[in-house]
Write a structure and sequence with these properties.
This is STAS domain-containing protein. InterPro entries: Bact_StressResp_Reg, STAS_dom, STAS_dom_sf. It comes from Streptomyces corynorhini. The chain is an alpha/beta fold and 132 residues long. It has a single domain, classed as STAS domain (Transcription Regulator spoIIAA), CATH 3.30.750.24. The chain has 4 helices and 6 strands; from the N terminus they run E-E-E-H-E-H-E-H-E-H. A 6-stranded mixed sheet has the order 1-2-3-4-5-6. Helix 1 packs parallel to helix 2. The radius of gyration is 16 Å and the shape is globular.
Length: 132
C-alpha cells in the first residue's frame, strides 16, 4: 500500500526503494509513528533502499537530527540503505553551528541523485521517431 503513514507523512514504493520525506511539523508522537511505519514498510515491502527527502525542511533542530539518525540506524539494521536528500544550505549551516553530526547518514544533493545512488535509474525517453 502506498500512501501516508499514521504520522501523515507519505511513504511511496518505487520498486525496492521507499521514498519519503520529513516536514517541519514533526513532533515526538508523529516521529515515533512515522519511524514505526517506515520500519514496518521496509520489512513488509522488502525494501533495500530508503530515500528521505528533507528539501521541505527550512530549519532543523536536535530532535529532527536525532530522528534522522535513528531512522537510518533502524533501516540499516533491517538491511536497507538510507540516503537523505535535499538538504538546504541553511539546514547544513545550522547543523554545523549546533555541533550536530548526522553520524552514519548518507546524503545526496537532491532526490534524483539520491535515487541514482540507490541504484534507481530513470529510463531515457525513446529516440525521435522510435516506436514506443
Amino acid at each position: 500500500m502506498n500512501g501516508a503513514s499514521p504520522a501523515g507523512v507519505p511513504i511511496l514504493r518505487l520498486g525496492d526503494v521507499l521514498v519519503t520525506g520529513l516536514l517541519n511539523e514533526l513532533d515526538d508522537k508523529s516521529a515515533v509513528a512515522f519511524s514505526e511505519e517506515l520500519t514496518a514498510r521496509i520489512t513488509r515491502d522488502g525494501a533495500r533502499g530508503v530515500l528521505i527527502d528533507i528539501s521541505r525542511l527550512e530549519i532543523i533542530d536536535s530532535f529532527v537530527a536525532r530522528t534522522l539518525m535513528e531512522l537510518t540506524t533502524m533501516a540499516r539494521l533491517l538491511g536497507a540503505r538510507v540516503i537523505v536528500s535535499g538538504m538546504r544550505p541553511p539546514v547544513a549551516i545550522t547543523l554545523v553551528e549546533l555541533g550536530l553530526q548526522l553520524t552514519g547518514v548518507e546524503t545526496a544533493l537532491n532526490a534524483e541523485r539520491g535515487m541514482a545512488a540507490l541504484g534507481w535509474r530513470q529510463n531515457s525517453p525513446p529516440p525521435e521517431g522510435a516506436l514506443a
